């Protein structure tokens, strides 16, 4: 059984999953994600974080937070989305993504954006399958060669968003969501 629990980003299970995500980033990118992120950024009503438990074991996570620095109202970013390798291809990432979109919408978000990297082929395919389209690079990794930035309007959860204007200096970490 898979259960999603809203928990803080500094919860011990989130810290363990984050460390697993960092190990994954080292494997595919050659280094850890150094984009700073604090638990307070995910605190409602400015964000949300969820941990997915598969048969009682932490197996997935994801969060969202508002991004006023991008100069657009009601834009939320997906951050720290990750599914452990042994639990991939079971629909967990899809469940986490649906929860994040619904929760952000409930708190007033109209647009959801994210940044990931080209090596995360499964994650990119998941997001595209759920209506995300390419947008202009933004945030912390905007100038990175491998960055892939995606977004969609949440009012119609199947319609890709228009390309946003250029972004500011702060931004998302790669989102690992193969599942």
Which SSEs are present, and which pair or pack?
Elements lengths: L1 E5 L5 H18 L17 E8 L2 E10 L8 E9 L8 H15 L4 E7 L3 H9 L3 E2 L12 E7 L26
Parallel strand pairs: 4-5
Antiparallel strand pairs: 1-2, 2-3, 3-4, 5-7, 6-7
Describe, in short, the structure shown:
The chain has 3 helices and 7 strands; from the N terminus they run E-H-E-E-E-H-E-H-E-E. It has helices spanning 12-29, 92-106, 121-129; strands at residues 2-6, 47-54, 57-66, 75-83, 111-117, 133-134, 147-153.
Distance between the termini: 16 Å
Helical proportion, percent range: 10-25%
Mean pLDDT: 87
Biggest β-sheet strands, sense, barrel: 7 strands, mixed
How many beta-strand runs? 7
What order do the helices and strands follow? EHEEEHEHEE
Q: Can you tell me about this structure?
A:
Strands 1-2-3-4-5-7-6 form a seven-stranded mixed beta sheet, sandwiched between helices. Residues 157-179 have low confidence and may be disordered. It is built from three helices and seven strands. The chain has helices at 12-29, 92-106, 121-129, and strands spanning 2-6, 47-54, 57-66, 75-83, 111-117, 133-134, 147-153. It has 179 residues and is an alpha+beta fold. The protein is globular. The longest helix has 18 residues, at 12-29.
